[in-house]
Amino acid sequence: MYRTLFLFLTLFSLSMSSVVSQEYATYVNPFIGTSNYGATFPGPITPRGMASITPFNVAGKQNKLEKDSRWHSTPYVNENTFLTGFSQVNLSGVGCPDLGVILVMPTTGEVETNHLKYGTTYSNEIAKAGYYSNTLDKYQVKTEFTASKRVGVSKFTFPKGQSNILLNLGLGLTNEEGAMVQIISPTEIEGMRSVGSFCYNSPEDAYPVYFVAKFSKPADKFGAWKKPRTYEGEEAKWMTYNGKTRIMEQTTKMVVGDSIGSYFSYHFDKEETIEVKIGVSYVSIKNARENLETETANKSFDAIYKDTFNEWNTLLSRVKVKGGTEEDKINFYTALYHTLIHPNTLNDSNGDYPEIKTGKTGHTSGTRYTVFSLWDTYRNLHQLMSLVYPEQQSDMVKNMLSMYDENGWLPKWELNSTETFTMVGDPAGIVIADTYLKGIQDFDVQKAYKAMLKSANQLDNNPLRPGLKNYLEKGYLTTDDGGSVSTTQEYNASDYAIAVLAKKLGKKNDYKTYKKRSISYRKLFDKSFKLLRPRNSDGSFYKPFDPLAGANFTKSVGFIEGNAWQYAFMAPHDINGLIKLMGGDKSFVKQLQKVFDDNQFDMANEPDIAYPFLFNYVKGEAWRSQKLVRELSNQYFQNKPAGLPGNDDTGTMSAWLVYAMMGIYPASIGDNVYQITSPVFDAIEIQLDNKYYSGKTLKITTKNNSKENRYIQSIKLNNKTLNRYYVTHEELVNGAVLELEMGNQPKK
Amino acid sequence: MYRTLFLFLTLFSLSMSSVVSQEYATYVNPFIGTSNYGATFPGPITPRGMASITPFNVAGKQNKLEKDSRWHSTPYVNENTFLTGFSQVNLSGVGCPDLGVILVMPTTGEVETNHLKYGTTYSNEIAKAGYYSNTLDKYQVKTEFTASKRVGVSKFTFPKGQSNILLNLGLGLTNEEGAMVQIISPTEIEGMRSVGSFCYNSPEDAYPVYFVAKFSKPADKFGAWKKPRTYEGEEAKWMTYNGKTRIMEQTTKMVVGDSIGSYFSYHFDKEETIEVKIGVSYVSIKNARENLETETANKSFDAIYKDTFNEWNTLLSRVKVKGGTEEDKINFYTALYHTLIHPNTLNDSNGDYPEIKTGKTGHTSGTRYTVFSLWDTYRNLHQLMSLVYPEQQSDMVKNMLSMYDENGWLPKWELNSTETFTMVGDPAGIVIADTYLKGIQDFDVQKAYKAMLKSANQLDNNPLRPGLKNYLEKGYLTTDDGGSVSTTQEYNASDYAIAVLAKKLGKKNDYKTYKKRSISYRKLFDKSFKLLRPRNSDGSFYKPFDPLAGANFTKSVGFIEGNAWQYAFMAPHDINGLIKLMGGDKSFVKQLQKVFDDNQFDMANEPDIAYPFLFNYVKGEAWRSQKLVRELSNQYFQNKPAGLPGNDDTGTMSAWLVYAMMGIYPASIGDNVYQITSPVFDAIEIQLDNKYYSGKTLKITTKNNSKENRYIQSIKLNNKTLNRYYVTHEELVNGAVLELEMGNQPKK
Predict the structure, then answer these.
(1) CA distance linking residue B195 with residue B74, whole number of Å
(2) In this entry, which stretches build a coiled coil (chains A, B) (predicted)?
């Protein structure tokens, strides 16, 4: 880890010196989150790219974290050392294994197809926005990678002698198997790799990633390999090749199997460089080829990298920060970078994409995004997109409605047009309502509303809201249902989203109905504990009740990925109601502080991540939020591979940090406000969109800000003193100037 | 077997009554050879067709002969009863399992993908040239099949209710695995199935059969299935679907795996008929589609069947027989039919074909044939083709030279452009020289000669003649080499072919050299046994020597698939020399008769199949040949499923019968003569080709011919008495009229 980091910083400093200060993309350190289960990857990707490349170092017992030894969700772990290829499609910051396939690997000498034998350690790792490089120790091959939106681009510098480029379609992060490969010519390979079964769910929805690979130089020799399964019948005694890898030299025929690959071999008289472009598609090989041609034909590695870097720079520079340390900027822009990876592009350059569930090919003139980890992202990531990248957020909502058109349901945890049904709740409507409230309204809101009502009310065959019958009859799910307390809280939040949207749409009765439904979680409040507690189907509280059970992903009755303490304050639509329920301000603050004091707060999981901001709701207690947010940011988010608290959750953790460092946070649902805490920087400027918003610049500035001066002394909004610790979205997007006077003493 | 045969004969008689007598194709009984390891299949194929369909009944323990329980080479066994589909590419009369894939299966009710569950018994089997039908007992579905050259055509008559058409790409006869399938629309499926590793050889040459299936009615529902291998890693505990078949409903994505398939489902209100056309190609899916369109677009099942029947009829009627029994005609025309299956067409309708070894796609304006089982077919099948179908034989020789161009070597046992290296010897040159001698000379004979010399002389890396060094130095292979005696005999015969071609080409020195080389087998003659006997590398005879060892495919030193008796007379190029070696006429006849008397003669394997004709070489002993050939024909070749002596060996056994029943046989090499024995029929007329030959009719007639009158009393050739028991090829193709006077007493 030290080695890597040291190198990165050294090279980073070098590159920093050669760029102008406006190049915000140079602050991105893609190594952040590549340890401590952050599950990010260090390789290149464009903003919301379909293709990405990462070193793949999770196979082989030499590695500390081996992919098959546990529930392992990442293609790359920074402290691992044994590399077996570079995968061409990858997920960032997720908690389940998938993708991490189509492994390209340069080697030298004789062709060796067993990854445990051809694998190698590596040195000289460099990762930047849109670029990754290392040197393979065993082969002394320099690798470099960049990517356009749908094409991964590799550049290998080989020593003289025999060199090989393997395309391993067997090895991968996904637990799905099966691939096809066909060498089309000495410069071109096409094929597919099966992926899917994300979180070990929906294996019947496993699907192909199609690809076309083009090489800058024709191979002197080529071939494919196949390792068949071991045949166990009577005839095995004649099959001398039973279960053994077979090499098919110069084959141009289609090869299929669970463990297959292809190789291109070269004989070089001197050091030589080869570029490999791999276009991908989830629709067809034809489209993969078209993606490749459209994006990279006749374009050099350097030109592609430059364009990708510029694309990052353009997007990241929508938020300009001043002040703070270099580390602060690295942490900030890397976090912003991580929020711009997922949801990512699913459609091909011609607009084709696989529809969800129908088996048909859909077509979009805009962007069809995928990877909607909504249980995570409804809490802050989509709000951040709405604020800074509303044109993207608009597309994402439109995508959700397209999914509803295709599949009959809004998405829950959508991945490449498969619904993985991961996690609980019915989060899409919360995102849709919030987006609409924020002024992004260029979507069919009536359809959206209809879709939200469907999942809120359809009792039978409702894939989004299991346990709905109990919820509607009793107001809560019972211990007969899974995660009864958590899920009740989630459904409440979703119902509140329906209520606020109903109000906006003038549906007064619906507003009342769903507002009432949204506070039914209160029935689970146990005064004796001042906590939410599971109830049995007869209405009695579940016994025995251990409020600590469920922490650290241990099993607990009533709670999903957390315990009663971690879920105690998750009523983002009813915070004032919750304060009353808890017995008023004093009791609420005492109980909330206890979460942190007793070390029950989990920075790495979503249910409680808004809690640090909730002290703002009690007069005179906002300083606690200011203190906590600074502390948590420093403790959990750092410029190092282990610099994320855990899974980035497709950017949710990173979105938390972006907001936290800017001093605003969307802790609530349906009221369109941001809680104000202490920004890290002297100034933050957000270039506001001019279609959805004012087109002005939102400015947040601080005076006397420092590590010690972490407490807000006074706030001015547009030059007028602000006597509250929140600011509305409307105020912000009209081009607010928010000035914070900082000091080292809490203002109580 | 009885059931089947009875039905066949009943229906056959019915159909016979409705056709005119010239329809020779009505005599074909495709059930002949479908038991007793004949390895033929009963389903439809055109002459030399690429596609064919056969009921597949060798999976499931219900069957007497289960494909995985032994070295099993047939997709269909007549006495088996449990049917699990209809395979679309098949080999006829071979001894190793391959092809027998792309299984189509109609079912009713819910979709069941496990062949052990969806399989069924069947009734009402009918098989004719170009047509097969049965009724599936479990589903009461009537099946009918026909084929054009590259397209298998299925017709299913379903009862009302839910019906399904499965396309099972997992199950198959080949031991190779791996397939791809993609549903393109509710009427079209494309994909591929891996095949190869014939005789458990050359697994690295395994290759795909590509296909496109078109359905006459759009499916109401469709899907694919995949049974993944069982994952055994740590994560198996979360994979509830581990190793289980998964159904992917309405998928149009590419699916790959070892055990996959697709289904189309229909809901019928009444009895309905669906036709399925499956085009195949060994080049590409595109070509499979083009084959389908070119041959069958807008053509009904009945029209395709009619054309295929006519094609058979046209070819079979080149030989017109009169007299004999109905059974004789059935045996004869079925045998001729079996000689017209392999070699079969490899090229697509556009001329594309996969080159051998190169990985490239070749192109032909004629026909590229495949399935050259030359160790078998050099002995009689190609001679029959040269006589009756010289235009085909010409193409076959040209194909061999193309293979030489592509691969650097003539073929040995070529299968779909893979060299399987099955059996021993270097037989291609024998076929080429014989074809040239027979007057079919429109090929590059200089190239052919060069190719023959190459395998005869290249010491290193010679795939055709292992052991060549010993052979050249000592005149024979030694016990250090495999099958030393047999292989020496084979190389001798091949060298003689070079000698006669050298003579024809005016290469006198070569003639001498190779003629000398061709008789080196004599060095293996052990006078004490009057048999050929293996020699050790020091020149001594191998001990102990058991002349009986090696029969019935048991292992023996020195002999391939046979024993010393079975190989004792295999000097087809030096029969007179062998007679001398044996000690003269008397000793030779005694020894030869002993082969038959001691039951050492094996009708089912090639080395000795010419022996019954060898008595013709000794004056006054020809009656023995006449007697034996009649007896063997009657004993081993009958109108019943077990009506072949064993593997048909891609028509070699059948060619034997065709010749035997016509009363001529090419028992020797290089002298262009046929031995005359007793024909079965009153008259045989062969329409001679007018490009290569005279265009006249070759007539063989008999007088007083009967079962008892099996001995030739006198022979007239073109109205002149013939005082010999052979006729030359030249005499025949000039339009000979050969008249035989028969009687019940041997003429000694």
Answers:
(1) 14
(2) none
The least confident of A92-96, A560-564, B289-293, B295-299 is: A560-564
Distance CA B736, CA B740 (A): 13
Which residues 6+ apart lie within 8 Å of B1 measured at CB? B35, B78, B79, B640, B641, B642
Do B175 and A235 count as a contact with CB atoms less than 8 A apart?
yes
Q: Round to whole Å and give the CA distance between B670 and B675.
A: 13
Contact A360 B175 (CB under 8 A): no
Query: Which chain A residue's Cα is nearest to B206?
Result: A248
Domain encompassing residue A166: 2-314
For residue B257, which residues of chain A lie inside 8 Å, CB to CB? 177-178, 194, 256, 258
Same-domain status, B268 and B403 = no
Q: Measured between CB atoms, which of B206, B239, B251 is closest to A359?
A: B251
Among the three residues B458, B481, B507, which one is the final residue of a domain in this structure? B458
**Does B338 fall in a domain?**
yes
User: Which of A206, A233, A249 has the CB atom closest to B68's CB atom?
Assistant: A233
Say yes or no for a CB contact (<8 Å) between A360 and B256. no
B13: pLDDT strictly greater than 70: no
Same domain, A188 and A335: no
State pLDDT tens for residues B223-274.
999 999 888 888 888 888 899 999 999 999 999 999 999 999 999 999 999 9
Q: Enumerate residues 6+ apart whose C-beta is below 8 A from A10.
A: none
Contacts of A346 in chain B (CB under 8 A): none
Q: Judge if A599 and A699 occupy the same domain.
A: yes
pLDDT surpasses 60 at A2: no
Nearest to A732 by CA among A718, A720, A722: A718
Give the integer Cα–Cα distance in Å for B638 and B661.
Answer: 12
Domain count, chain A: 2
Residue B688 belongs to some domain of the structure? yes
Structure tokens given for B80: 């088996």
B252 CB near a chain A CB, below 8 Å?
A: yes
Instruction: Provide the pLDDT confidence category of residue B3 given band limits of 50, 70 and 90.
Output: very low
Q: Do B200 and A239 touch (CB under 8 A)?
A: yes
State how far the Cα of B309 lies from the Cα of B320, in Å rounded to an integer.
Answer: 17
Residue at B644 is within a domain: yes
- Between B204, B206, B250, which is nearest A359 by CB? B250
Reported ipTM: 0.90
| Residue B265 phi, psi dihedral angles, 5° rounding | -120, 150
**B173: nearest CA in chain A?**
A235
Q: Using the beta-carbon criterion (under 8 Å), do B240 and A200 form an inter-chain contact?
A: yes
Domain with B375 in it: what CATH number?
A: 1.20.1050.60
Of the given ranges (A99-108, A113-122, A265-274, A418-427), which has the lowest mean pLDDT? A418-427
In the three-class reduction of DSSP (H, G, I as helix; E, B as strand; rest coil), residue B686 is classed as strand
**How far is it, in rounded angstroms, from Cα B707 to Cα B744?**
9
Contact B86, B53 (CB under 8 A): yes
Q: What is the mean pLDDT of residues A90-107?
A: 97
pLDDT tens for residues B133-151?
999 999 999 999 999 999 9
Flag whether pLDDT at B17 surpasses 80.
Answer: no
User: What CATH number did the domain enclosing B721 receive?
Assistant: 3.30.2080.10
Would the CB atoms of B179 and A210 count as touching at under 8 Å? Answer: no
Q: Minimal Cα–Cα distance from B250 to chain A, Å?
A: 6
In this predicted structure, the answer to whether residue A551 has a pLDDT above a threshold of 80 is no
Same domain? For B68 and B217 the reply is: yes
3-class secondary structure, A203? helix
Q: Tell me what percent of the residues of chain B surpass a pLDDT of 70.
A: 97
Query: Does the CB of A180 have a partner CB in chain B at under 8 Å?
Result: yes
Asked if A205's CB is within 8 angstroms of B254's CB, the reply is no
Q: Of the candidates A314, A331, A362, which is a domain's last residue? A: A314
Partner B contacted by A510 (CB < 8 A): no
